[in-house]
Amino acid sequence: MSHDHDHDHSELSDVELRVRALETLLTDKGYIDPPALDALIETYETKVGPKNGAMVVAKAWTDPEYHARLMSDATAAIAELGFVGRQGEHMVAVENTPGTHNMVVCTLCSCYPWTVLGLPPVWYKSAPYRSRAVRDPRGVLSEFGVTLSDETEIKVWDSTAEVRYLVVPQRPAGTEGWDEAQLAALVSRDSMIGTGLALAPSERESAA
Amino acid sequence: MNGAQDLGGQMGFGPIELEENEPNFHAKWEERAFALTLAMGATGTWNIDTSRFARESLPPPVYLSSSYYKIWTLGLENLLVNHGLVSEEELRTGVSVTPAKPLNRVVKADEVAGILAKGGPVDRPQQQPARFKVGDRIRTKRMNPEHHTRLPRYARDTPGTIETVHGVHVFPDTNSRKLGEQPTWLYGVVFKGTDIWGDDSDPKLTVRLDLWEPYLDLA
User: Fold this and answer.
1) Cα of B77 to nearest chain A Cα, Å
2) What's the CA dihedral at B86, B91, B93, B95 to 10 degrees?
3) A49-207 has which fold?
């Protein structure tokens, strides 16, 4: 698939032209319907994202029975909140404790729990994270500003099959009596991948 | 295959580049590349394992120097050509000169929500009992297939322990080659960091992978 270059192209403009030509061609062939592409993009821009996962985590923090269901059958428990479908067909929730930290990666591609976190950030799909997460998770975490005690066990989950992992971070101190909506605001995307921790109440105030 | 996609444990890629408040897409073409890939996937002409193999079959210098949606674009182009849906010439010009091939389905906008909600579960009814049970000590195979596989190099020929029996799932190694789903038992396997990386490993590290029965032998 060579491209003849008679003048300088940035990679961006080259790939931009390529994608545009591809869409035109596939439309002309009748293989795709462009409004369906718009609907696909719209779904992940507006409907699916880490707010979904944050609701799951906040509910697990406040509702012991829901927590038990999430830990025993995450797919069904997450479906209770209406989050179902593509890249969330087989969900497993893994929980951080004072002595254990979980972190999720896909070393082979970009597997990620779309139903609860939306589409993965660029760093999750890129070589630096994918190469190091399984070998040097503490070094990776330090780049995210997270330092764990040397005594903390680190469990790294490499998503090699269609099972998708959601990390349930530890509930921050000082949130006793908070409701689900307040708690959900503390649950960052990274805390559910395991490259971050849930925000402390003070961090939330300074972020707001 | 031992392609550029098999990144676990490789070195020299530098720091992780973080972006505050990162958008889903960094350019319009990324949105279109994403949606084109999903829409063509939904035609049922190939499966998710075939499309992963198309991406990891890109030459390593191309794979490693391309952004992720560029990898998707190049992978999609290869799938389209390999399945006879478009020609190289048509890709280059963007102009259709050969008749379209009939597809199983063409996704319409009002079908998108239903298709995404349905997803593509890969669990299948069990046909034979599981060979391993929780707690069994196993060793992953030493293997270097040229076809698609989901046992990364860093975890080959390595002792581990069965932690979870997930059930019977579609086997990517055959499904990617259109040799059928051949559903097979899938296990959650835990490995000690030191068994994978040696004495230099973080002593508190364990790594878990989901692995199919044909990748494993009893230790």
Assistant:
1) 8
2) 30
3) Nitrile Hydratase; Chain A (3.90.330)
